[in-house]
Write a structure and sequence with these properties.
By secondary structure, the protein is of the alpha+beta class.
Amino acid sequence: MVSQQYIHLRGVRQNNLKGFDLDLPIGQLTVVTGLSGAGKSSLVFETLHAEGQRRYVETFSPYTRQFMDLLDRPKVDSAENIRPSIAIQQSNTVKTSRSTVGTITELCDFFKAWFPNVATLIDPATGQAITDDNPQSIWKVLNKEHTDQTLLITFEVHKPDALNWSDILQPLSSQGFSRIVDQNIIKRISDLEPDTAGLDSKIHVVQDRLKITTKNRSRFIEAAQSAFTYGKGRVQLLGSDNVPVAEFTQGLHSPKTGISYRPATPPLFSFNSPIGACEKCRGFGRVIEIDYNLVIPDKSLSVNEGAIRAFKGDVYSESLRDLQRAAKTHKIRTDVRWSKLRKKELAFILEGDPNYQEGNDQWYGVYRFFNWIQSKIYKMHVRVFLSKFRSYTRCIECNGTRLKPEALNWKWQGLTLPELYQKSVSELLLLLNQVSLSSSPTATDEPALEGILARLNFLDQVGLGYLTLDRTSRTLSGGETMRVNLTSCLGSALVDTLFVLDEPSVGLHARDMDRLISILRRLTDLGNTVVVVEHDEAVMRAADNLIEIGPKPGINGGELIFSGDYKSILCSDTTTGRFLSNREKIELPAQLRATQKAPKLHIHGATKHNLVDINIDIPQQCFVCLSGVSGSGKSTLLNNVIYQNLLAQKGLTTDEPATIKDIESTLPLSEVVLIDQSPVSKTPRSNPASYSDAWGEIRKLFAQLETAKSRGMMPGHFSFNSGDGRCDTCSGLGYERIEMQFVSDLFVPCQSCDGQRFKPEVLDIECHGKSITKILDLDVEAAVTFFAKYPKITRCLKPLVDVGLGYLKLGQPLNTLSGGESQRLKLVRYLGKVAEQTGHALILIDEPTTGLHRADVKRLIAVLQSLVDAGHSLIVIEHNIDILKIADWIIELGPEAGINGGQIIAQGTPKQIAKINCETATYLHEALCESNNRLSTQLKAAEPSATYHSLRANQNALVVSGAREHNLKNISCVIPHNQISVVTGVSGSGKSSLAFDIIFAEGQRRFMESMSAYARQFVEQMPRADVDDLSGIAPTVAIEQRVTKGTRKSTVATITEVAQHLRLLYARIGIQHSPTTGIPVVSQTPGALLKRLQSLLKETKVKQLRLCAPLIRGRKGHHEPLANWARDHGYSQLRIDGELTEISRFKKLDRYREHDIELVVSNLKPTTSTQQLKAALTTALKLGKGSAFLMSNNGKVLSWLSTQRTDPSTGEAFPELDPKHFSWNSARGWCPSCRGYGQLFDWMTQDDEAAIDLPDNMEDGATCPDCDGARLNLISRSVKLHTKRGETYSLPDLLECKPNELVRIIKSIKTNTRTEPILNELLPEIEERLRFMDRVGLHYLGLNRSTATLSGGEAQRIRLAAQLGSNLSGVLYVLDEPSIGLHARDNAQLITALEQLRDRGNTLLVVEHDEDTMKHADQIIDIGPAAGIHGGEIVASGTLAQLKKNKASLTGHYLRKRMPHPLRGTYRPLPSAWSTRKKKGNEQWICLQGAALRNLKDFDIQIPKQRLTAICGVSGAGKSTLIRDLLKPLVDTAVSTNSPKLTAKQVDPAHDSLRTSFRALHHADNLRKVIEVDQSPIGKTPRSTPATYIGAFDIIRTIYANLPEARFRGYTAGTFSFNTKGGRCEACKGAGRVKLEMNFMPDTYVTCDECNGRRYGAELDELRWNGKSIADALAMSFEEAAEFFSFHTGLKSLLDAMVQTGLGYIELGQYSPTLSGGEAQRLKLVSELAKGMPTFKERQYNQGQGNLYILEEPTIGLHLSDVERLIELLHCLVDKGHTVIAIEHHLDVIADADYLIEIGPDGGDAGGQLLYQGAVQGIHASKSSVTAKFLEVPV
C-alpha cells in the first residue's frame, strides 16, 4: 500500500546523530543500513521506537508505568504522526522456564481453546471413553440393555448429622414423594411417621416406576430430569428386587471407579493456571532437588579416593570418616571404584544402616546427610554448599508435562495435549492440516484451529519449523527469539502499528530469506509500518525505502547520507551503494589452504538433539565453516559435540555435552575457546580499555609521570574500580542513578566529581595534556594515534580497530554493546593471546558477521585469516555467503531442520560445495562466479506471492466475528479505521461488552504481549475475550466512564497526574529545610554525628536504645534474601513496616506490597564505650548509605542521623526523601493530625483506619489546625524548591497556583548539573498535562482543589483532556459516554476534539446515547433490542440516516420521532409567585436567599414544591454547589429544627462554614426528609447484589424463615444470608465461587464444587417454597421475582420499581461489580425510592409534604427510551406529593421539567450567576441563557 502519510522527525540528536530531519513513509517497509556504530540503532530504537512506545505507555496509569521497560525521552526537536511502537530485537530476555515457544506465540492459548472441543476423556481404569450422562443418553443405554424391564427411578438422600429423618421426610412428603427404598425394601413415607429410628443413614427416594418401552420415553426423560435435580446430579435405577442395576451422573465419571472428572475447559489445559498446573511442580515441569550424579560425579573413584564429592574438604570430611568407620563394621568396600560396588553396598552408603536410630553411632547414609543439611538452609554457607549438588529434575508427578494428571486423561487421536506440544511445528502442521481437510470443525473449534494453523504457518515460514512448542523460551537464540516474536506480532493481527526490527535475517539461511521477507510484507499489508535495521541485500532489495546512516562509525557518523529506493542507492556513492553495485567487493583468497593432508579433529558416534551417531573429520589449522538451513544441527555440533566434549576431556565443567563414542585431535590443543554473542559484561564498570588489557598499561603510564611520582601515586590511584584515586561518592562510576518510578530512570553526573570518576588530585595528573578521564573519552582509533609511542598500549588496542570496533570509546560500558559487538570484542581478547602463544588453539565462533555491514565483514575476514595463519584452527557457524566463499572447508548439515536434519549432507571446498545438490550450493555458486546479479535467485524467491496481499480486503477496518462475551449473541460487525463509530442501544444491551470487554481488552492485551513478562504481571491481566476472530485491530486506549470523582483525598493535581510528577520532582531535587529554623540542611561528618549520638544517649535517660540502618524503602518483594543476609552476619532483629521482628521468626513478606525494612545494628546504652559507639555508627551509616536513626524500645524513632541531611543549628537529621514523603495518601507524607485530608471530620473518630482524636469544639469539616489544610506533615512541608529569583516554594505552595502560574515557577527553578536532567525530564510531563487543562477551559482551577467539589462536567473534561492529549496517531480510542456531565455547549467542543483526533489518523469507537455525537459519527451500531438476556444483538448498523429508516431500531425510532414535551401533554401549573410581601401563599415554595457559597454570586432562588425542577447550566457553573452543597444541608437543618425560616444562627454546627453563604431559607420545614441519589458505586465484591442493595433480599429471607419447616428447624432470617455462617456454603463462604491463588499467576475464580455456585449448603437448598429454594430465588430476574412474590405488597413494590426503571432483566443475585454504569445508577435510584416510602404512621397522619429528592444527572448511561421511562418515574414521584430536583444536562429532562433554574454563564469564577428561573417555556425569552439555543420546548 503506497501511503502519502509520513512520520515526521525533526532535529534528531540522539547519541551521535547530527540533528537531521527525516520523513518516514507510513505503511511501508523501510530498511535502515550503514556501517556498524554509525547510528542506526540510535535512530530506529532510541528515537523512533522510544517515542512511539513512550506515547502509548503514557496512557497507562503511573502505577503500571513504573514496572515497564521505559525508554528515555529521545533527543529530538519534534516527532509527529508517530504510531505506537513494538520493538523486536535480537535479545532473549526471558529468564523463566514457564515461558515456552507455545506461550509466547499464543499457540498454547489457541490449543487450550481447541483441545477441549475435540478431545475425549479416557477412563484411566478401563481405557474406555467417558461421556457425560443426561436423560436422553441414559434412555439410549436402557433401551439397549434393559428393554421391557420395570425399573425404579430413584435418587439418594443422605441424612445430615444435624437433622432427624422426620425433618427430611416431611418436606419430601409435602412435595409429592410417597415411597422410599431403605436397605432394598420399599417403604411408604406415611407409614414411617413418626417412627424413623430404623432407617439407614442413606435412603433412595422413588421418583417413578415404569417399564422401559418406547411409549414411556417422554415419561422417563421427565422423571430422570427431576431425579437429577433432586439427587444433585445423580440417579440410581433399581431392578425388580430393589437392587441398583445402574447409576448415572450428570457430568463425567468413571463407571468402574465412580470417580468424577472436571469438564474439559481451557484452564484445565493451562500450566499457567492453578486449575491445570501440576500441584507438585506448579506447572514448571521440573523441580529442584539434590542431584546424586553431582554428589558422586566421578564413578571411577572409590569412597576413599573422594567419590562422594560432598564429603571432600574440611567442613564435612567428618562424615567421610563416619562412613569409613561404619564400613569396616559392615564389611563395605571403600577402596573399590564406585561403579564396581554391589547393590547392597551402594544401598548401605546411600540409605544408611537399615536399623538406623539417631544417637546410636550408626551410619546415617548420604540421603539423611542431605536431609539434615537442608534443615540448616537458612545459613548462607549451607545454601552455597547445596547449590553445588542441586539441579532441576523432571517432575515425577506430571512426568514433565506440567499439567495435573486429570488433564492427561483427555486425548485427541490418542495424544494428550503435552504430547502435541512435544511435536515440531512441521509435524503439527502436517497432522492438523490432515484433520482440517478430512473433517468439518464445529463452530466452536474452527476459529481456534484457524488460529493454530496460521501461527504454525508463520513459524514455518520464518524457518522455525524444527521448534517444538514445549521448548522453553530462554533456550532460544537471539535470532530465533526475534523471529518467534515476529510471528507473535503477525498472530496478534495488530494494524497501524510501528514495528522496528533488529536484523531479523540473523541466523537465517539464504534459502529462508524469502520467507522472512514475505512475513515483513505481510505486516505492511496489514497496514503497519515496518522499519528494519538490516545489512542483508535480499531484504534491502525488497524494501520500499532505504535509509543509510554514515559515513563512518562513532563521532564521524550520525548523518543521513541516503534516503530513497533501491535503484537510487545503486547510483549513490555511499559505502552500501558501492557494495550493492559491485563497485566494491570482497575478493576471493588467492589460494585455499590444503585440507586433505591437514591434521584432523576426529569425531565418532556423536548424538545430541537431531544429530544421531554422526562421524566426521574436520581439518585443523584451516578456516572451516559449518553451513546449512536454520535448525539443521550446526550449533549442536559446534557447542554440544565439539566444545563441551573437549572441555570434558580437560576435566572442566560442562553443560549438556553430546553423547559421543570418541573425539580426538591430531594436534595437541593448548586451548579451546567458544566465542558466542552472549554479553561480555553485565556491569558498567567494564569497558573496552579494561577488557583489551590496555587500561592496565595506561594506568602504569600515568603512574610513571613525574607529577604522579612526586605525589606518591601508584597505578591503583588511576583505577575507577578500586583504590584511593576514585571518587568516593560514586565509587568511580561517574554518575548517580536516579530512580524515577513511572518515567525512565536518569543517570546524572556525580555531584562530587562532576562525572569525571576520579578525585581532583588524580585529575590534575595529565599525560600529553589529557587527564585520565579525558583518556576514557577517546575512541579507540584516536587512542591508537594518541599512544602511538607506547607499543604495549597500541598492541592491546590495535585488534579493536582490526575488527571494526575503532569507534568505541575507551570508557564505554560493555553492557551497552550489541551482541555482534560483544562477539567481536571477545575475538579481540583472544587475538591478543594468540599473538603471544606458540601452541595450537581451537577457536569456535557462532555467526561472527552478526550486525556487520559488508565493509566490516571485509575487515573481519582479514582478522579471522590471521588467526589461522598463526597456526590455529577455526570453526565458524555462518550463513553469510561472503564468509562461506573464502573458507578453506565447508561442512553442510541438513537436508532440512529438526528431525529432518542432523545429517552431514556435504563437505568440501567452496567450489566443491557449489557443485553439490544442497541448499547452500546455489547461493555459493553465484558468489564464486562474481555475477553482477549475484542475488537474482534470492530476489525471485523473496518476492511475495499474490496470496500475501489477500489481507488487503479488510485492512481498512476492524472486523469482529462471533462475539459472545456476556449477553452478546454471537454477533459480528465491521468498524472502519480512521472514522468515528458510535455504539448505542438501550442500557444493559451489551454495548460495553462489545466495546470494552472485547475490542479494547483484545487491543491492549495484544500490544501488552510485546512488553516484558515482568511488566505484564503488574498490569491488570485481561482474559482472552470470548470471540471467534478479531482482525485489523490497532493498539487501543480506553477512556472509561467514571461517575465518581476519586476519594475524599483526590484533588485536581492527583487526577491529572501532576501531583505524581511533582512528588517525584520534590523527592529528587527538593532541598530539605529545618522545620525548626528554616535553614537548609547540610552535610555532617561522622565525628559530629558521633557527638550527637552520645548526647542523645545521655538526654533520653533510657536504659537501652536501638541504632538502626534503613535498608529498604518502599520496595516490593518477599525480601527473604535480605533476612538471610542479616542472619548470616549475626544480626538478630529487623524493623519491618514499623514492627520489630526477630530474624529467627522471619517469614516471606507479601511480594506485591511495598515494604520498609530497617536493620537493628546495635543495642546502645548510656554506658556504651565511645569505641563501640563509633564502630556501631560507622556500620549503620555504611549500611544505610549515609543515614541511620535511633529508636526507642517501643519502636518510636527518636532521632535521625545523616551525613547528608542535617540541620546545622540543632544537629537534627532528616530521612532521605522519597515521593511518598509528598503523598497525603501515605503515612510517610500525610499530616498526622488529619491523615492527609486537610480537614477534620466527625466520622474520623469512629473510623478504625483513621482513629483520630479531634480537638474539643472542632466543627465538622474544619481546616486542620496543624497543617492548615496543606495535608502534608511538617518535614514534608519544609522541603522547598529554589527559583533563580531567590524564591522558595513548598509543594503545598505550588499546588495553590493556577496551571499557568505553576508552569512559570517550575521553569524558573534553579538547577545544577545533577538536578537539571531531572527537571528536564519532568517539566515536559507536567507542562503537557497543564496545557490540556487550559485547552478545555479549566485554567481557573487551582491544583489543590478537591475533586469532590468539582462538577461532573469539570471532572469529565479533566479526564478527557489528560487521556486525549498523548498526541498519538494510529490508535483505536474506545470511549465510554464522553458526553456525560457536559452541557450541550461543552459537548459541541468535545465533538470537535473527537473529530480532530480522528483526522490525526486515529479510529474512535464511542459508546454513546447522545444525539449530537451520533449526528457527527461516520457509523452507528445499535445493539438491542432490549437489555440483558433480551439484548446482545445488532439490530441496526449504518449512518444516522440509515438508522432513522430502520424500523427494527429503537434508537432510530427516537431519533426519527423526537420525544414530545411535555410527555403528559401539559406542564403542572406553578403556585402563585413567591413574594416577601405576602404573608400567606408562600408555603408552596422553598426560597433560598443570598446563595453565596464558593463561586455563587449572592442570588435568590425559589423552588416550587411538589414539582419537577431541573437545574441546568454549563459545566462548573455552580449547579452542584447550589443544590448539593448549600441547599441540601440547609433543608436538612430546617426539617430537623422545624424552622419555617432558617437563618445563619440556626445552622447546625456541623455546617458552620455555610453560615456566611446564605441569608435565609424559607418554608423547607414541612418536608418529610431529603433524599439524595448520588453517583457513588453500589458494591465492589461478589457479596453485593442488586437484591441485597435495595433491601429486597432482607424481605425474601424473612419469608423463607417464616416457612413452617424453617421455623421447625429453628432457622432465622440470618440463616438464609449467604454472608454469615449458618446456612451458607462454607466451602466458598457464600460467594458461589472459589478463588484459586498461586504466587506466580493471576488469581482465578472457579465455581464452587460444593454448592455448584448456589451459595448455600445442602440443608437450605433442599428447603423450598412453591418449588423454589432461596438459591433459586436469587437466580430469578426481577421480572420473574415480581410475579413470584406478588403476594407481598412491600416486596412487590420494590421489585416493580426495578422493572419500571428498565432493570427487570437483572438477576437478584447478580454480582454488583458486573453491572454497567447506567444499571448501577438506576439501582441506586430504586434504593433511595424505597427509603423514601412513607411509614404507616406518616401515611395515617399525613405527616409532611412528601420528600425532597435531589438527583445529580440521573440520565447517565441511559438510552433515550430509558430516559423517557426515567422522566415518567420522576413525574410519578411528584404525583405522590414529592418535590424533585434534578441537576441535569440532558435536554429531554430539562424540556419536561415543570420549573427551570439556569446557572452560568461560564465555569469557575466566570460562573455562579443566576441566568434564569421560571417555567421552562419562558427560557427562550432570557437573553443571558446559554441553554436556550439548544432547547426545543413549546412556547
